[in-house]
Amino acid sequence: MRNIQFIIFFSIVIAIFTLLNLYIYSKGILAFPQGTAARLWFRGIFIFLAASYPLARFLERVWLSPVSDIFTWIGSFWLAAFFYFFLISLTIDLIRLVNLPFHFLPEMTRTLQFRQAAFWSVCGIVFVLIIAGFVNSLIPRIKELDLTIDKKAGDYKDLKIAFASDIHLGTVIGPRRANGFVNRINQLNADLILLGGDVVDEDLAPVIRNNLGDSLKKLSAPLGIYAITGNHEYIGGAEPACRYLTDHGIKMIRDSSIRISESFYLIGREDRDRPRFMGKPRKSMEEIMSGTDKSFPLILLDHQPFELDKKEELGIDLTLSGHTHHGQLWPLNYLTKAIYEVSWGYKKRGNTHVYVSSGYGGWGPPVRIGNRPEIVLINLHFTR
User: What integer pLDDT is reported at residue 7 of this predicted model?
Assistant: First the structure.
């Protein structure tokens, strides 16, 4: 049953991706006269680019190699370019539609010369966007928060937490980016390191081949390194991913809570998509918290930032999430804002502190436009 759901889901995704690529192709081909060599070149290059990412995902499963890496990089950049080509093409078509009754566009817009000039202008705009977004994705910021919890935490008056989500280790986030992440987070000298899911990017094979676990083993914090599952761990296989992370020094919290240093509780939820990929429900918050003493500070890791009202109602003091990437590519941030109460950043609900990270890595394109990758340094202060 689960395999059938996978086939149906990915068939729908591929069908939509193909149709949208055909739409972009139908606009671009108008810049090249029939029977010309340029038209043939355009067709061949476009088919190559459009097929690169699906082909890369297939090759990573059957023949992980430098060839699959090349297709992954090309296809990943094409995903971002494809998105902006689609938006610009759609905008142009909407303008032309409005022009039908009002005739405000000059006649020159119907000429081949104008179409060619428009084609190269659009390519230039998209190219600049992709390069700028790629550079932006390479420069994560350190976001610092000072938060107060009105509880006693053993002997701790203050607690320094380094939090990161959505690292997406794999082919694109490879050894250099992984080492950079570890160095940045270790420089914060945090008491505790928390990883909010999507540590690996679906398939575990590129992580193993690039030996990215060796980088993770260098993470250092006196109270330990803890992580939860995200939807991408489940897409690629949650059990092997969790075993790999555990073998490399990361303690996985899976629908459970633990008390650390007799001072505070750390609660970790399985990802919301567990039922879809495993056919088994995750535990309710009430079940997970059945043995917790709420007089201690309660820190919750939940990959997808849903049910914030529930978390407030149950007395969670700090809830940390990721998943949204804040859209990753503008203007998708408006969509994530519509879906999630908090798409990126801090909010306080009653006595519950909420932070949703934009993430460190990214899914698909190694491109960020409209937001920054980040590591979050949380300075917790306990008042009682």
Answer: 75
